[in-house]
Hints:
Layout: H1 4-10, H2 31-50, E1 53-59, H3 63-69, E2 75-80, E3 84-85, E4 90-92, E5 99-109, H4 122-128, E6 129-140, H5 146-149, H6 151-156, E7 161-166, E8 182-187, E9 190-196, H7 204-217, E10 227-232, E11 237-238, E12 244-249, E13 253-260
Parallel strand pairs: 1-10, 3-7, 4-13
Antiparallel strand pairs: 1-2, 5-6, 5-10, 5-11, 6-7, 8-9, 8-12, 12-13
Amino acid sequence: MIDAATWIAQTLDLHAPDIGAIPAALRPPDLEAGYALQDRVTALMSSRGHGATIGWKVGSTTASMQRLLGVPQPAAGRMFESSLMPAGATIDFRRYRRPAIECEVAVRLGQPLDARDGALTIEAVAQAIDTVHPAIELVDDRYGDFVQAGAPLMVSDHFFHAGLVLGDPVPSWRELYLAAVRGCTWVDGQEKLAGTGADVLGHPLKSVVWLAGHLARRGQRLEAGEIISTGSLPLPCWAQAGQHIEIRIEGLGRVGVEFSG
């Protein structure tokens, strides 16, 4: 029988079945097993051309997202060299099952963050950050029924992650109170969805605090140079072919993509 990591990695092929169809014998029974499987999927994806990992995405960070997914806690996934797309990219809609755009605050670390000796504070996270960006996370629904798929299976597949588009770095970000910024998603020139930084665990940098603690429990730390996409302020905006979708975050700027196909 095919092993679980290979089964999950192959679902990036549109001709493969949705991840929710994984045989019961291969399904991770709990979150610990899901993250262990994620490690194996990461190694397999890197060996198959996705490149080295560049950082992390944190999902399920707002109450509305947790209700949508049936996942009452944050979840982490890896991002790869192949994840990065340029601002203004044209995305082939046909390459994805059910793509969506998320409006996020992303950070790049200038220093490592290690929570193995105790929980970190937002202030410690801020000191370790090199740059802050408005960002699009491209996500793809490879699961079918979210609730039936369950968190352990979704984290094994990097929790919907499909791509990352970074806007320009914002030199003055320390002058902003990130919990108060408003982020919105615009489709073809019209605002469709909105949220605030406070919707993301109370403050976007709390996602980094959570991620550092999650990694510490697995004997790991965040490294200098890694990018963290901290979670969508509004709900995902499910895309259609031919749309121009842009995210705008007060004080941080905007970035957009086109969907072809």
